């Protein structure tokens, strides 16, 4: 009978290997304690005047061991859950062991880094931050929806827009994009129509686009071409299509 080259392991060695395997499995299975802020993007950019909520959620094996969960403002001050009069940056419990940061009516003064912190098992300090930024959304400054050029004159269809970052402005008539030339000149605050005629009557669309924020906004402007006429020495206007004021 041929004897094995390897000695038979002792019972103590087998038990030691089993215990070691158990410890290794436990270490591998245990997740690294951390905090998750949702939405998960590290920078949240919102228009001035809007509202938002950012939820801080502990991602740990035993959530019941989470203590002192809180939000800090950009000045590293704790944000209270009980809002004071006029406060628009507060916190609220969104679910068990979850804390939301609520900003209502975002202003430029609210921009900065907000930090969520917590203690886990009284021994591990957890921290996660998010940047809140703002932008001025598209606003119509001077863009009347009805405008009345006089035939034979040059007239700028007004469409002054404000946004930050600055918007791009484009023009359409009957869904056809207007190009510079053929009596049209696109300007920063409107569309110049040279030598207005009855053919310029119609619905124009002023479109504002901010590429950095993905904002797009349209404004329809009715252009009614008119002419002067005189009755008994009184100068009046009428639409070239025959509509009288």
TrEMBL record:
A biological process term (GO) from this entry: homophilic cell adhesion via plasma membrane adhesion molecules
GO molecular function, one term: cell-cell adhesion mediator activity
Signal sequence, start to end: 1-30
Classification via InterPro entries: Ig-like_dom, Ig-like_dom_sf, Ig-like_fold, Ig_I-set, Ig_sub, Ig_sub2, Immunoglobulin_dom
Domain Ig-like intervals: 33-133, 152-222
Keywords assigned: Immunoglobulin domain, Signal
Pfam hit, one: ig
GO CC annotations on file: axon; plasma membrane
Protein name in UniProt: Fasciclin-2
